[in-house]
Amino acid sequence: MIDIGVNLTHRSFDADRDEVIERAQEAGVEALILTGTSLQSSEKSVRLTEQFPAYLYTTVGVHPHDSARMAPDTLPQLRTLAQHPSVVAIGECGLDFNRDFSPRPIQEACFRAQLELAVDLNLPVFLHARDAHDRFMTLLRDYIADLRGAVLHCFTGTADELQECLDHGLHIGITGWICDERRGTHLRPLIKKIPMNRLMLETDAPFLTPRDLRPKPKRGRNEPSFLPHICRAVATYAGVDSQTLAARTVDTTRQFFELTSA
To answer: How far is residue 178's CA from residue 133's CA, in Å, rounded to a whole number?
Structure first.
């Protein structure tokens, strides 16, 4: 398995980051793709990948929540960071109209700037969309033909939204949201609609801890070693065994991000 979305620079991992990586390896997670959500976190992620080459990779980008903090020199610095061999995508970028931590026009400008950067650098994009599907797709359509690839991280949308994403060539990331009996049940019948060569797995650690995980982790923190639990859940709804799903998603992920084989 490969976890395509890990916020490993988050402060909740400060006390045991190396142990978290070790537990992921012991659980059979063969690579982690860290998530850049700001210039600062992207810089930290790049430095962290240097400690675990060929196991840790990263994206670099600005999350819509942080769009308002994007300075004139942010994009040039992201461009420089993206030259690092461990960087596999631009993002996490997109739109979040659920919390609106940054004004929507600023989110949109930040999103466009990163899509343009990804096209210019011939890198795929790691995308975020929450309560913003229509506007998100409107902006993305201007770039999708020129992008090397696009994966919508932590998909939680409707059947119609999923189909539109698939029609436009997007890959889909599924998290432990599917294990949530309050919010995730609508996702379960949608899994069979995602072609196996467009499906990827992620924890979004330390967030989105699977609610049905037993025993429950201390402090409720999610971590990459829980990816096999998510894999088994997704496999159940895909109607395949978990080993098959794990192998197929690894192939898809390695091809999409151009990761070297283990």
So the answer is: 19
Q: Specify the residue for token string 């996490």.
A: 92
d(C-alpha 210, C-alpha 207), whole Å? 9
Q: Among candidates 140, 138, 157, which has minimal Cα distance to 149?
A: 140
Complete domains list, the chain, with CATH: 2-257 (3.20.20.140)
Nearest-angstrom CA–CA distance, 1 and 243: 9
Residue 257 in 3-state DSSP?
Answer: helix
Tell me which residue of 166, 203, 202, 188 sits closest to 235, measured CA to CA.
188
pLDDT score of 233 more than 90: yes
Any idea which residue has 């991280």 for tokens?
153
Would you say how long the chain is, in residues?
A: 262
Per-residue pLDDT, 147: 98
Of residues 60, 140, 67, the one with CA closest to residue 99: 67
Classified as helix, coil or strand, 228 is helix
Whole-number pLDDT of residue 260: 76
H or E segment and range at residue 232: helix 227-238
Q: Count of CB atoms within 10 A of residue 147's CB?
A: 18
Structure token digits, residue 14: 């400060």
